[in-house]
Every structure is written in structure tokens, then in C-alpha cells.
Amino acid sequence: MLEVRDLNVYYGEIHALKGVSFRVGQGEVVTLLGNNGAGKTTTLRTVSGLLAPRNGEVALEGTSLLGTAPHDVVRRGITHVPEGRRVFNRLTVRENLEMGAYTRRDGEIDADVERVFTTFPRLRERAVQTAGTLSGGEQQMLAIGRALMARPRLLLLDEPSMGLAPVIVEQIFETIQAINQQGVTILLVEQNAAMALSVATRGYVLETGRVALEGRAADLADNPEVRRAYLGEA
Predict the structure, then answer these.
(1) DSSP state of 144
(2) What is the tens place of the pLDDT at every residue in 15-52?
(3) Dmax of the chain from CA atoms?
(4) Is the torsion defined by CA of 195, 232, 137, 157 positive or negative?
């Protein structure tokens, strides 16, 4: 579904991604693991059109995305839940969800708002509340719900567990699995390696802008190097 080949991305003179290549197959959950500064967020921002690579290729179902504006990437079927959630603080929960459907012109937006409320019952209770007054967990639910309003085929998730209580993290990851089971392919960036590998099909480990390891999620979870570096085992 998604093919990333030999991606090189710079911030000024800083070489952030150094020949990164990976693929995401239809229906998979693929996770990108790595420490801060490894290039995970840069990778997602490049896929979604927010950053332009110096060279390399990003293709969706065989068609290049390079040079495609971010709103047109959304129209192509990719939505991005950014690190830090980035909800519209002064808009209500419902208005945030409606903003997620801004590329659509069909008559099913209200029905999709209702689907999000079914997925996240807490948001239904907060429908007329401004997003800036929500808890961190509620804002994460809203950010995911907003992305779903575009009816994505590929969902990019950047650090969905960041700053959340363990019980909320479990709820978020259960929802990620449910979204995938409904037919949405997922590319997941997550520092909580144990949780990421528990829901992923396959994974890639980024180190200083390069892919250092790749494989099935179960194999990576059993890899001594991964267990030591990312799962907190001696």
C-alpha cells in the first residue's frame, strides 16, 4: 500500500533521514520504533506532505506522493494524528470532528460523527465542550476521531500514548486495534515499544535517521537488542 524508498530529508544542513526505506501493506499495523531524534516524526511528516525530501520516493498504491500538498494527501486517503494531538482548542469537540471532514462534500458527515461518538463515548459527553478544556486522554481521542472523519485508508499515528495515564493508554491501543480491524491500515510511531509491538504486524527500528532493524513484531519483541534498548530489560 505505502512504499517509502531511500528517503533523505534535511532540516537545513541537518541530515535527518538517511536513506530510509520501508513498506506498509494493506491491512497491516506497522510500527516505527526509536529513541528521540531517530527520525520517526520526520518520517510521518514527510509521508503526509508536510516535509519535502531532498530525494527518495513516497508512493501510495504505486503512485508517487512527492509534491502533493498535505490536503491532497488527505484526499488520497492518508490522515495524520500528530504528536501532541494539536486539537483546535477554541472549537468544540463536534466542531473539531467536522474540521476533520473538510475535504468531503458528501451527506454522511453527521453519520460519521456518530460513529466517532460510538467509538469514543467520552467525546459524546463532551460534544459541546471546547477542546482546550479536555483532559489529555480526551484530546487524544478527539485527535484520532478527527482523523477518522476523513475516512482514511491509511492512518498515521505519532506517539498516541505520550503523557497519558496507563489505563488511558490501554484504551487508546484497544481502539487502535479496533480501527485496524475495521479495515484501516496503520503506521504507528510510538516510544512505548511494548504496547506498539503488541498491536503491530511488523516493525522497523530507526537509529539516527537510518533503519537499523526490521521484522515481524513478535521477532522484534524477542530480539535481545530491542529488549535491552526499548523494553527496559538488562
Answers:
(1) H
(2) 999 999 999 999 999 999 998 889 999 999 999 999 99
(3) 55
(4) negative
C-alpha cell at 11: 532540516
Residues 147, 152, 153, 156, CA torsion sign: negative
Q: Is the torsion defined by CA of 231, 21, 61, 75 positive or negative?
A: positive
- Tell me which residue has cell 490536503: 71
Report d(CA 46, CA 4) in Å as an integer.
10
For CA atoms 155, 159, 160, 166, the dihedral sign is positive
Note down the domain range covering 68: 2-230
Domain CATH code at residue 180: 3.40.50.300
What residue has cell string 520504533? 33
Q: What is the domain count for the chain? A: 1
- Residue 103 CA: distances (Å) to CA of 76, 130, 131, 142, 205: 10, 22, 21, 18, 33
Cell numbers representing residue 160 in the block: 498516541
Cα–Cα dist 219/33, whole Å: 14
